[in-house]
Amino acid sequence: MPRDRDLFANFERMRREMDELFGDVFGAALTPSRRGGFSPAVDVFYAADPPRAVVHAELAGIDPDDVGLEIEGRELIISGHRRPAEAEGRVYQQLEIDFGPFRRTIPLGADVVAEQAKATYRDGILTIELPLIATEVRSVPIDVPGEGEGR
């Protein structure tokens, strides 16, 4: 048994030293952030018919009236606030759903028509559709000097 105790003590000492070097990486990964805010998860994809960028943002439990959307150039900014659940009369065993203000900037890979953007909120998912600016496809001829002159 003394060997097990020594092994455990060595492990704890090594972990403290690692925490001093790198910060509390292991503990921070296991516990949610309580810094007063969060960053909602998003999916971004492009569709062809009609050409558009589509953003899905996970905003479960957030009143759509507490969400703001802005388009600045090639960036979509989603901001808002998730209110904490009413806690009166509750004794929590676990509290993992983050709340507070958020602001998420999503870079877009194409120019969009901001005035035609549409947003819908259903089942906790905010869907933003951003029509892409039509780009003209033009064929460019390639000039080869001296061709046809019988080299």
Can you tell me the number of structural domains?
A: 2
Give me the secondary-structure category: alpha+beta
Question: How are helices and strands ordered from N to C?
Answer: HHEEEEEEE
- Shape designation: flat
- What is the name of the CATH architecture of the largest domain? Sandwich
Q: Could you give a quick summary of the protein structure above?
A:
18% of the residues lie in helices and 31% in strands.
Could you please describe the fold and organization of this structure?
The protein contains 2 helices and 7 strands, in the order ααβββββββ. The longest helix has 21 residues, at 2-22. The protein has 2 domains: 1-31, no CATH class; 35-131, Immunoglobulin-like, CATH 2.60.40. Helix content is 18%, strand content 31%. Residues 27-34 have low confidence and may be disordered. A 4-stranded antiparallel beta sheet has the order 1-2-7-6, with no helix packed on it. A 3-stranded antiparallel beta sheet has the order 3-4-5, with no helix packed on it. It is α+β, with helices and mostly antiparallel strands.
